[in-house]
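Task 17 of the worksheet. Students: predict the tertiary structure of the chain below and write it out as structure tokens. Keep your answer in the requested format; marks are given for formatting as well as content.
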Amino acid sequence: MLLDLLDRAAAERERQALVRSRRLAHSPCSVRQAVAPVSSATPGGACHPQPLLSFSSNDYLGLANHPGIVAAFAEGAMRWGAGSGASHLVSGHALPHRQLEQRLADWYRPYIPRARALLFCSGYMANVGVLTALGSADATLFCETLNHASLIDGARLARAAVQRYPHRDVAALDAALAACNSPLKLIVTDAVFSMDGAIAPLGELLELAERHDAWLIVDDAHGFGVLGRQGRGVPEHLGLASRRLIHIGTLGKAAGVSGAFVAAHETIVEHLINTARTYIFTTASPPAAANALLASLELIEGSEGQQRRHALQQRVGELRAGLVPLLARQVADGRQAWQLADSITAIQPLIVGDNAVALALSRQLEEQAGIRVGAIRPPTVPEGTARLRITLSAEHGQDDVRQLVAALRKAAAGRAAP
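Model answer:
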């Protein structure tokens, strides 16, 4: 019965062009990576890796294979071993963990008075841990419609009431907060929306939190390291400062390693240490990873980090300058136009609509131009908004962006007019 049920579900995914499969990398994370073809994802599939120009990772600053960070990881492993051996609260909390938390707390004290930082093993665990620990039966969570799956799951698991407000709709949130009688109100949002690249109106949301005696929980997974003069994410980029800010950052994207952290008022962090189940009941990340992240933070806030952020913004501008005229011509020709999302970040989604069209376009780029760009489909994005999620890195050069633009122009020219 179970296998028949799963076979029917698999057939339905196939019909809707929603099948997902893993791709096997044969070289380190980089803008140029050797990747096995799709056929190798199935048992017995041939494995002949091909070098691809990648616009699909979240390694926004190009630090995942940075020699200095790799060396710090190796040094940490030589000194601290391969694993931590237990949870932080049992015996797994090592000196590099404490140093990393102290460094992150120093980063965020200008934005969160009396801030402490707490490490988690992943951004998913941090989001679920924060929402379930703070989302008591006396609370209401006000969740952005386009929040990441980890925030959605955290809200589902919390004991709190949940209200969703429309994407970036400050007025709707204001009305919902005004009508709420819960003793504890928590606004929950992505900082940079992972599939759109748009930045949440966090200044306005923080004003609402102050006015309605609420707290603002911000998942800054795609802003940390990228936004702000020293890479401290949306608080620095937007000049936010409030004790009501609970900031969650991911350390496996722009920082190039793994894990996540929460920066918040010290009382909140102490509460999380004692109540967040995804912190208490899991083995601590390797101390070597924390050692590597200390090197990553040093690089991110220094001159090299500033240079990499500048290079990244140049690539964003070049991509948009190359694609916007192309998309305008589609409209002029009377075709069903692709849409480039309005984003200033490293995430530059090209919305094509149909699931099968997105898959075919991704496959065409790989097979004809040697370019890897992932096709994103529901339920990750709303129905009818399948897209290529183009992500840029500081390691991309001008020629890389030109190559992608040329390949997309060729693909667009081959589309039949209605």
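Marker's comment: Residues 303-332 form the longest helix (30 residues). Residues 21-50 form one domain.
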